[in-house]
Write a structure and sequence with these properties.
By secondary structure, this protein is an alpha/beta fold. It contains 17 helices and eleven strands. It has helices at residues 13-25, 40-50, 60-65, 68-73, 81-87, 105-113, 124-140, 149-158, 183-187, 191-194, 204-212, 214-226, 265-273, 305-315, 319-335, 341-354, 363-379; strands at residues 3-8, 29-36, 54-57, 75-78, 94-97, 117-120, 143-146, 166-173, 234-238, 244-250, 255-259. The protein has a seven-stranded parallel sheet with strand order 4-3-2-1-5-6-7, sandwiched between helices. A four-stranded mixed sheet has the order 9-8-10-11, covered by helices on one side. The longest helix has 17 residues, at 124-140. The termini are far apart.
Length: 382
């Protein structure tokens, strides 16, 4: 029987890559359900091609734009409720969650409670609520497999030893467009510059997160929970060539690195076929094409997110949720041209210092802290 896959966020870059992977893998996988935010045109094309039993779209306008043909060919749902519903479908084997931001938390939790293999492509749920996500997965026998290239790389490297043999994890970062800037240049960054990644074409939010290195800060928090390694044993190295996707240093001094072309189809495929490796949609890397590989430590003065992530991890509690929510709100303000690039992290740090973060770490308290933090950040720009 083919494995049945649910893709939440099917019209985004991860979702479309996942469908390419499934197509390349042939009859071993089939698409059970697709869900999108508002891109009804692409969702309709995907419905026609992959013929899922279920499809959903969050946007009311997007639902209205779907043709009657699409609605007759599959069971189409609307509203955000479809994400949790699809994540817990009894017939689903694998749930790929590629919903942008904290909004994916409920879907991840629903899939975990249903005991699914959860391929997590959005870092925010684990960064903000890693303790309860991992606890829930363990309680219900769910598998959490990373789709972020860096965390997939760590998972692959960790198969070279056991937990007691690990000295530290090393996440690599492209560094974004500004890793060679001075502080004065950072302070003068314009809107258009922050939305131009030197290597990849990504969504606006993640592109800005790459420019502030917040994406890597969130990945530190995510790795802490995925691999049960304290954050103070997780390092970050800027590696502009983006060929080494991450490394694990073992207690004997050995360092195991995962190297591949910078193509998200590989970590997606690995999450689908784990623990097996199969040929599919990915090509091998030709190391002879690369003259040099460079690594350097990130500058925490230029990129305060790299300092703050270790602070909030050490403090624990609801602080990681505040950290993530403050960033999502500040990036939203930036994308609406209401604050400058440099103010993004200034607002995040203000929220960390001023928003309540005490209380038991429960789903309800994390959601409440998230909402309160967003209100605080938006109030800074009234």
């Amino acid at each position: 029987m083919p494995k049945r896959v649910v893709i939440l966020g099917s019209t985004g870059s991860i979702g479309t890559s996942a469908l390419n992977v499934i197509e390349a893998l042939g009859d071993d996988f089939e698409v059970l359900a697709l869900a999108a935010n508002k891109n009804s045109d692409l969702l309709e094309t995907q419905i026609q091609k992959f013929k899922p039993l279920y499809a959903g779209i969050v946007s009311e306008e997007g639902y209205s734009s779907l043709s009657d043909t699409a609605k007759r060919s599959t069971s189409v749902s609307r509203g955000s409720e479809c994400l949790e519903h699809f994540a817990s479908l009894p017939e689903a084997d694998i749930v790929l969650v590629a919903v942008v931001g904290f909004a994916g938390l409920n879907a991840v939790m629903a899939a975990a409670k249903a005991g699914k293999r959860v391929a997590v492509a959005n870092k925010e749920p684990l960064a903000a609520a890693g303790s309860i996500v991992t606890k829930t997965a363990k309680q219900y026998g769910a598998e959490l497999l990373p789709v972020d290239s860096e965390h997939s790389a760590l998972a692959q490297c960790l198969r070279s030893g056991n937990q007691k043999e690990v000295s530290k994890l090393v996440l690599t970062a492209s560094g974004g467009p500004f890793h060679e800037y001075t502080l004065q240049q950072i302070e003068a960054v314009k809107y258009e510059q922050a939305l131009q990644h030197p290597r990849w074409n990504m969504g606006r939010k993640i592109t800005v997160d790459s420019a502030t290195m917040m994406n890597k800060a969130l990945e530190v928090l995510e790795a802490r929970w995925l691999f049960d390694i304290p954050a103070d044993r997780i390092d970050v190295l800027v590696h502009p060539e983006a060929l080494v996707h991450s490394m694990v240093e073992f207690v004997d001094g050995s360092v195991i690195a995962q190297i591949s072309e910078p193509d998200m189809k590989l970590p997606i495929q690995y999450a689908l076929t784990y623990p097996e490796r199969v040929s599919g949609a990915c090509k091998s890397v030709n190391l002879a094409d690369y003259q040099t590989l460079t690594f350097k430590s990130p500058d925490c003065e230029l990129f305060p997110a790299m300092r703050l992530c270790y602070d909030v991890s050490a403090e624990g509690g609801l602080k990681p949720a505040v950290f993530n929510a403050a960033n999502e709100a500040a990036v939203s303000l930036f994308l609406n041209r209401r604050i400058s690039f440099i103010e993004i992290m200034e607002f995040v740090e203000k929220a960390i210092n001023n928003c309540p973060s005490s209380g038991e770490v429960t789903a309800e308290n994390i959601i409440a802290a998230d909402s309160e933090t967003r209100r605080y950040v938006y109030s800074l720009k009234k």
